[in-house]
Design brief:
about 325 residues, alpha/beta, Rossmann fold, 7-stranded parallel β-sheet, two-stranded parallel sheet, 13 helices, 9 strands, about 15% strand
Length: about 325
């Protein structure tokens, strides 16, 4: 079966292409930007371009997108063109060509204001049942694209699986106060408790989704590292995260202290991946326990795939205050 990967020049797209070809699978990559893993350069907003390269395709892994870092540098229409029109073009071409599995890369960012609990409330427990409240055009267009996937399954019987991926990019944090108070590796280690995934695990989730798409039909799933927390932790977690982490990982402070690291004072939301693990048969390998073991043994915290792909960045130009402008 030939697999089409969109966004093949991007971080996830290259990870998908490397993994698929490493397994001897027939995969072709398309992207607006040329790369070693892009076979055809063009825009998914171009219907003719999509039609040409959907011929003979058995499955689609659709990771091409404009991201949150582009919100301040691209127009809302740009987001509509890529994230909505581009997805529609792919879905229509997939249906015409008898594609058996369509996997769409969405984002936990679309939850927006639903991630912030009201004053005095415990941390937010984020599952697929939480209703998104998007904060920007990025979140709004990703929700619309998800709904298109659901529509094509309902009306056209196209098997579609939506994966709401949490942070897996290696770029530095966009929040100045966090960057100024925590080393970058410290930030990422902390995030494995509640809002980060490892690139290899995200790739594996996509391949699991592709294999089970026909069985699932349609589904939305959060893809993030398995959290150690439960609902019973949420109230204390919001105000005293170090105490909750110490309860789950006695002695973690020792490994942190050796590096001058600290836990965040509070954690306001927790992403829950239980549905993805059950429905997809997905078994993520990277979590906070794995990170601690890497710290103890001196191993690299990143997967070999993440090291190979490296950092992509989101813009050709650099910015004075942070990795990208914040809207």
């Amino acid at each position: 079966m030939r697999i089409l990967v969109t966004g093949s020049a991007g971080h996830l797209g290259e990870g998908l292409m490397r993994t698929l070809r490493g397994r001897g699978q027939d995969a072709i990559g398309i992207d607006l930007s040329p790369s070693s893993y892009t076979d055809f350069v063009g825009s998914i907003a171009d219907r003719d371009f999509v039609d040409r390269h959907m011929q003979g395709i058995g499955a689609v892994l659709h990771s091409a997108t404009l991201h949150k870092p582009h919100v301040a540098t691209h127009t809302r229409q740009d987001f509509v063109d890529t994230n909505i029109t581009g997805t529609l073009n792919l879905l229509e071409a997939a249906k015409r060509n008898g594609v058996s599995a369509f996997v769409f890369t969405s984002t936990t960012s679309l939850y927006g204001d639903a991630l912030v609990p009201p004053p005095g409330a415990p941390s937010a427990w984020i599952t697929e049942d939480v209703v998104p409240v998007p904060k920007n055009i990025y979140g709004a267009t990703k929700i619309a694209a998800e709904d298109l996937c659901q529509l094509f399954h309902r009306n056209e019987r196209l098997p579609c699986v939506v994966l709401r991926a949490s942070r897996f990019f290696p770029e530095v944090d966009d929040r100045r106060h966090v960057r100024e108070n925590f080393p970058d590796a410290n930030i990422k280690a902390n995030e494995f408790l509640y809002r980060r995934a490892e690139l290899q695990d995200v790739v594996d989730a996509h391949l699991c989704a592709m294999e089970r798409a026909a069985e699932i039909g349609f589904g939305r799933f959060i893809v993030s590292a398995t959290t150690p927390f439960g609902p019973e932790d949420l109230r204390q977690l919001h105000d005293d995260a170090p105490a909750v982490v110490a309860r789950h990982f006695p002695g973690y402070e020792t490994e942190y202290a050796r590096r001058g690291w600290r836990m965040f004072a509070g954690i306001e939301r927790v992403y829950v991946n239980a549905a993805a693990r059950q429905a997809l048969g997905w078994k993520p390998n990277y979590d906070f326990a794995r990170i601690l073991e890497c710290l103890r043994t001196g191993e690299e915290m990143r997967s070999p795939l993440a090291i190979e792909v490296g950092a992509k960045g989101y813009h050709e130009q650099s910015f004075e205050d942070g990795p990208y402008p914040v809207e």
